[in-house]
Design goal:
about 425 residues, alpha/beta, Glycerol-3-phosphate (1)-acyltransferase, 8-stranded mixed beta sheet, 14 helices, 8 strands, about 50% helix
Length: about 425
């Protein structure tokens, strides 16, 4: 959390158009980096012709992809190289603040910053200009955060739809072709011994609770016990006591109760009619936009600074808790990549370290283009084009997951 949320003034970081650096990185470094760091070794692409057709017709192209792993932007770099085009990509500002070399490199790979803790007009204008000029496709991850579950899509943020619509309006006035959104599904699969792969991480977490390693239990039961222990720790921390009941409902109640308390404390209206899903990412962003500015401006005394950071840390962990979907691991024909994802999320949340398991295979499927209207449909609760993109991404993910089940278990259904 402390690497993502920074207590310093934001400055927009523009991209640097450098086909040479893109070629150098993709040719000599990217594949080894993906293998050594993220354990992603092989790739295949589907539907590339849909994107090629849009490139050939000169459309302004927005690639809207799901975001389950930090490796996703680099994986998309292989797709763009396969098509002979480079990408621009909207990336969280904190990524540009992790050393001069990373900042230097990702700018030349086409990335520009976006400030996730407020309205970043420069980033929005940069994105609109890219779509209007259509030199390269623009890659955005509309979920707004890394989910760590590649089979279930989170709600989309509002920004990408606004960007596409404004660019479409400008292109229409200039007599240019349309802006199109290509939904992109990114999915990873693991074909190794999943129980062996996660054993050391599970044992490390169990020992941190002063438990004996629960090796007598199957992996899914160990995961459930660890998950309940982590949830109980957060209940005691945020509510003062553990709560009984079904774990997933307990997690939803913990998030709802604690977010409401923080929103009321800082005068933040959540605007959320349905607290079943909670829309945690958007609500956490609103809280940060209220809590952070005075911290950055150094306008708060030490005691209040500590209190604000405590609330920011709480919001971060609530968002992480929300990323554990109900029924993702059941113990009955669990897909191995789902087990991997869940363990990696637990290690990240509880031990604050990255743990990657492989080898992984990455499949990228590009959907058909969705033409973006220049006019806003004020009767729609969400942007129609982005809603359709989300629907198609989820359908593609469902199809890829069904293929995996058929391959592993001979099932014909998802």
């Amino acid at each position: 959390m402390f690497e993502i949320v920074r207590e310093e003034p934001y400055e927009f970081v523009p991209p640097v158009e450098s086909p040479l650096w893109c070629w150098i990185v993709r040719t000599f470094r990217l594949r080894g980096y993906m293998r050594d760091v993220y354990r992603v070794e092989t790739f295949d692409y589907r539907g590339s012709q849909h994107l090629q057709d849009s490139l050939d017709r000169g459309a302004g192209i927005l690639l809207a992809a799901n975001h389950s792993r930090l490796a996703d932007p680099m994986a998309m770099g292989f797709l763009s190289g396969d098509l002979g085009t480079e990408l621009y990509a909207m990336a969280s500002w904190h990524l540009f603040m992790e050393g001069w070399w990373q900042r230097f490199l990702i700018r030349r790979m086409g990335a520009f910053s976006v400030y996730r803790e407020g309205v970043d007009r420069q980033a929005v204008n940069q994105a609109i200009d890219i779509l209007v000029e259509n030199k390269r496709p623009l890659l955005i991850f509309p979920e707004g955060a890394v989910s760590r579950h590649c089979d279930i899509l989170m709600e989309f943020m509002d920004g990408p739809g606004f960007i596409a619509r404004q660019a479409s309006k400008r292109r229409e006035k200039a007599g240019k072709g349309p802006v199109v959104i290509h939904p992109v599904a990114i999915r990873y699969s693991f074909d190794g011994d999943v129980d062996k792969a996660v054993a050391s991480d599970l044992e490390a977490m169990e020992k941190s609770f002063s438990w004996q390693p629960q090796t007598h239990l199957p992996t899914h039961q160990r995961l459930r016990k660890i998950g309940e222990a982590l949830l109980t720790l957060k209940e005691v921390e945020y509510l003062g006591a553990a709560v009984e009941g079904e774990p997933h409902q307990r997690a939803l109640d913990l998030i709802a109760t604690t977010l409401r308390r923080i929103e009321q404390k800082w005068g933040v209206a959540n605007g959320d009619k349905d607290l079943g899903y909670l829309n945690v990412v958007a609500r956490v962003k609103k809280i940060r936009t209220v809590v952070l500015p005075d911290l950055i401006a150094k306008k708060v005394p030490p005691a209040e600074r500590e209190d604000r950071w405590r609330d920011l840390a709480t919001c971060y962990y609530l968002q992480q808790i929300a990323h554990y979907p109900r029924g993702y691991i059941t113990g009955q024909n669990d897909l191995p990549e789902r087990v991997i994802e869940t363990v990696e999320r637990m290690v990240e949340d509880y031990q604050d370290r990255a743990s990657y398991h492989g080898p992984l295979h990455c499949t990228i499927e590009v959907g058909e283009p969705i033409e973006v209207s220049a006019e806003r449909d004020r009767s729609a609760e969400t942007d129609p084009a982005m809603a359709l993109a989300a629907e198609r991404i989820q359908a593609m993910l469902d199809g890829l997951a069904a293929e995996r089940r058929t391959k592993l278990f001979g099932e014909k259904k998802n």
